[in-house]
Design a protein that fits this description.
By secondary structure, this protein is α/β, with parallel strands linked by helices. The chain is built from seven helices and 19 strands. The strands form four sheets. It has a six-stranded antiparallel β-sheet with strand order 11-10-13-8-9-12. It is globular.
């Protein structure tokens, strides 16, 4: 069987090379050789493994058009979990070399449930504590972890709201979905002290260095978690960029972490917070309208051209792209984590 060489070049110019058989996708080939690239669903649906092919030929398997739009595929972007080389290939990936692991032990650990509480009508807070002597939580704010339902091989991916720490603490904000497997677990079977397997950190979403350019963060629902992690990290590192959090929900009953956001704003002179309720009552004192409507108002009113960080459902992300195009913010200033459809 013919094998082709795959050369991966990371954002910081480092490279890793490995062989890939013609009947293998690039992710499967890397895993076979204990090279753990950034990947998640392995079904062409989440865009975590997206890269840009600069050299070589390949065939692409079936992918979600949301994860890899046709225009990007034509330009040469690929999803590594659905990319089958037919020659030697060279691919650039949008993350640094230190996010590649070379042993599964680097990623997996056991944790126990430390807190489980309902923070709104449809969101639960899950706080985990890492077990064992090594209490280091490795995390570039914006990344996610896979959480496995105890006693099963079912896992779901969630971004924590905490930052990297040496206390073994992980803080998740999880939307409760009707008939969702992890939702059912949280509501019916989870308990304090229960152990579960955790894999991560994974993913490529995160802060980008761009001088003193303001940062606007747009979050839909539980997309607040990675956004809050990034803002908390800015606070810890005393980063000076002006920043705004736009946090959107549908109804007032869905608002959560309002006090935490207000506390964060009080601690950070550079931070402003907009809590936006789409279907707000007359009694709501915050922003009224969709998070995209409020963002559009501010961008048009101030003329600021910030870097934008988005985490939310596809509709919110697509509408934000349209607003940015309207006010002249280029796509290369937009960084995102889009909620793509997955099994419940």
């Amino acid at each position: 069987m013919n094998a082709h060489q795959v050369k991966i070049t990371t954002e910081d110019g480092e490279t890793v090379c490995f062989d890939c058989n013609e009947d293998e996708d690039i992710v499967s080939a890397s895993l076979r050789q204990d090279i753990y690239l950034m990947t998640s669903c392995r079904e062409g649906g989440c865009a975590t493994c997206k890269g840009f092919c600069t050299e070589g030929d390949y065939e692409m398997g079936k992918v979600s058009v949301q994860a890899l739009p046709p225009e990007e595929e034509e330009e040469g972007y690929v999803l590594l979990c659905r990319c089958y080389p037919t020659s030697d290939v060279e691919i650039e990936v949008p993350y640094t070399y230190d996010r590649i692991s070379f042993s599964p032990d680097d990623l997996g650990f056991e944790a126990e449930v430390a807190e489980l509480s309902k923070v709104s009508c449809n969101v639960m807070k899950l706080r985990l504590h890492k077990l064992g002597d090594n209490q280091q939580i490795k995390l570039d704010s914006g990344q996610y972890y896979n959480l496995e339902i105890p006693g099963t091989d079912i896992f779901r991916s969630y971004s924590p709201a905490n930052t990297a720490n040496n206390r073994g603490e992980l803080e998740f904000l999880i939307r409760i979905v009707d008939n969702g497997k992890f939702s059912s677990y949280l509501q019916n079977d989870a308990y304090i002290g229960q152990k579960l397997n955790v894999t991560g950190p994974l993913g490529i979403f995160g802060l980008k260095e761009n001088g003193f350019t303001p940062r606007y963060f747009v979050a839909g629902g539980t997309g607040l978690a990675p956004i809050l992690s990034m803002v908390r990290r800015m606070h810890e590192w005393e980063e000076p960029q002006p920043c705004v959090i736009y946090f959107g929900v549908n109804t007032e009953e869905e608002v959560f972490y309002a006090e935490e956001l207000q506390r964060q704003q009080a601690q950070m002179p550079t931070l402003s917070v907009r809590i936006c309720v789409w279907k707000a009552s007359d009694n709501w004192s915050g922003e009224k309208g969709s998070v995209v409507d409020v963002l559009r108002r501010d961008l048009r009113g101030t003329g600021v051209k910030p870097d934008l960080y988005l985490c939310g459902p596809p509709g919110m992300v697509d509408a934000t792209y349209a607003v940015c195009a309207d006010v002249g913010i280029p796509q290369n200033k937009i960084y995102l984590e889009k909620f793509l459809p997955s099994a419940a």
